[in-house]
Design brief:
Elements: E1 2-5, E2 11-14, E3 18-22, E4 40-48, E5 53-59, E6 63-70, E7 73-77, E8 82-85, E9 89-94, E10 99-105, E11 112-119, E12 129-134, H1 137-140, E13 145-149, E14 157-158, E15 163-170, E16 175-179, E17 184-192, E18 194-197, E19 200-203, E20 207-210, E21 215-220, E22 224-232
Parallel strand pairs: 13-14
Antiparallel strand pairs: 1-20, 2-3, 3-4, 4-11, 5-10, 6-9, 6-11, 7-8, 7-10, 9-12, 13-15, 15-22, 16-21, 17-20, 17-22, 18-19, 18-21
Length: 236
């Protein structure tokens, strides 16, 4: 079963320095039909003005993943971590027992465009931790590159939940497939371009909920960049 979430149907927040699109309920945006999908709770597509960003604030008991599309994020947190995140890198911060952090546009002249993702951890009160890994373009082009997983395999960042996160850059006219094991669900999020997923047409900003499917087939209609979350199916 496939359920399409169109880009224009997402929640929208405009704060001057921040333009944010919410795939799921977040902050002042609430839709009882979209309060997350399985263990995936948040996908925010954020555009941040030059020199602006999210000042120091706190989180607990959440796996927070950032995926940059354009620009750079300057990250600082209460564990002493300081880093700059650019396109091709994936950042994972486990808030656990509590962490304060800031996420600022690292440039004073260029905009920042990125996806912020929250996943419910499998255990509460984990020690706060941080991880950042680069995944070169050639390793994501016309292939499914695992960039996040519970066991950190193949150099992916470690996510404290039963999830596999894939990233891909799919060229127009190319096809990819991803098998899904029984009792697995998936969410596909298109960041740029256009493709078909099991015959469903998707464009930038669209999301697709997938349950009771044995495989996903991706057909490039334009050059496209997308993420796939392979998740445990929590339905009773």
């Amino acid at each position: 079963m496939l359920s399409l979430r169109r880009s224009n149907d997402r929640g929208h927040a405009q704060h001057g320095w921040l333009d944010s699109r919410h795939t799921f309920s977040f902050a002042n945006y609430y839709d009882p039909r979209f309060t997350g999908f399985q263990d995936l709770l948040v996908i925010n597509e954020d555009r941040v003005a030059p020199g602006a960003g999210f000042g120091t604030h706190s989180h607990q008991n959440m796996e927070i993943i950032s995926y940059v599309l354009e620009g750079a994020i300057e990250h600082r947190d209460s564990t002493g971590t300081g880093a700059v995140l650019t396109p091709g890198e994936v950042q994972r911060m486990s808030a656990g027992t509590g962490v304060a952090h800031s996420e600022m546009n690292a440039s004073k002249t260029e905009g920042l465009h990125f996806l912020q993702i929250w996943i419910e951890p499998e255990k509460r009160s984990l020690p706060p931790s941080y991880e950042q890994t680069r995944f070169p373009v050639e390793g994501r082009t016309n292939q499914m590159r695992i960039v996040g997983s519970r066991d950190g395999r193949e150099g992916s960042v470690t996510i404290h939940q039963d999830v596999e996160l894939y990233a891909s850059l799919l060229s127009a006219g190319k096809r990819l497939e991803l098998p899904l094991e029984p009792r697995r669900a998936a969410w596909v999020q298109v960041a740029r371009g256009a493709l078909e997923v099991n015959g469903v047409s998707m464009r930038a900003g669209d999301g697709l909920a997938v349950v009771d499917e044995r495989a996903l087939r991706f057909d490039g209609r334009e050059d496209a960049e997308f993420l796939v979350f392979d998740l445990a199916d929590r339905r009773a």
